[in-house]
């Protein structure tokens, strides 16, 4: 039901604004620099809402203006609900981040504000070592 990712965000690296239709995520800054998140509620048509954003930071509900930078110091964490646009970068130094989340299918659960190339065309010439959620049906038939 859950997955865990370890991410190293380099200075200047930016994830594009996106949300998930069904995935819940917790991010924890494990060290290095500051994790700086940008958050927006989504509108029913997939746009950016101009409403206040409510999130849990270290278990305490906090409210932010739409697009207001949310800075997490090493040791701090944030919980994101479905439908919440988020993007992040790091301030000062490379930052180690851990994401614990419900498993999602990258082919159908991501909504990017601006179209981005997610999966490049790959000429599969060998079986995969590790499967993505969307790969299981191709390799394991019920």
Structural features, described:
By secondary structure, this protein is an all-beta fold. The protein has one helix and eleven strands, in the order βββββββββββα. It has one helix spanning 136-139; strands at 2-9, 18-20, 25-31, 34-41, 53-57, 60-64, 70-72, 77-80, 84-91, 95-102, 110-112. The strands form three sheets. It has a six-stranded antiparallel β-sheet, with no helix packed on it. A three-stranded antiparallel β-sheet has the order 7-4-9, with no helix packed on it. A hairpin with a 2-residue loop joins strand 5 and strand 6 (60-64). The longest helix is centred in the C-terminal third of the chain and has 4 residues, at 136-139. The two termini are 19 Å apart.
């Amino acid at each position: 039901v859950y997955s865990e990712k370890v991410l190293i965000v380099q200075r200047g690296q930016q994830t594009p604004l996106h949300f998930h239709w069904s995935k819940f995520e917790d991010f924890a800054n494990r060290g290095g620099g500051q994790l700086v998140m940008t958050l927006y509620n989504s509108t029913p048509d997939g746009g950016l809402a101009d409403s206040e954003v409510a999130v849990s930071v270290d278990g305490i509900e906090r409210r932010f203006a739409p697009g207001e930078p949310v800075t997490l110091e090493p040791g701090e964490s944030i919980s994101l609900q479905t439908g919440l646009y988020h993007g992040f970068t790091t301030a000062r130094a490379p930052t180690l981040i851990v994401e614990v989340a419900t498993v999602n299918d990258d082919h159908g659960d991501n909504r990017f504000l601006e179209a981005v190339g997610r999966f490049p065309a790959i000429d599969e010439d060998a079986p995969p070592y590790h499967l993505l959620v969307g790969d299981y049906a191709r390799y394991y038939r019920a």
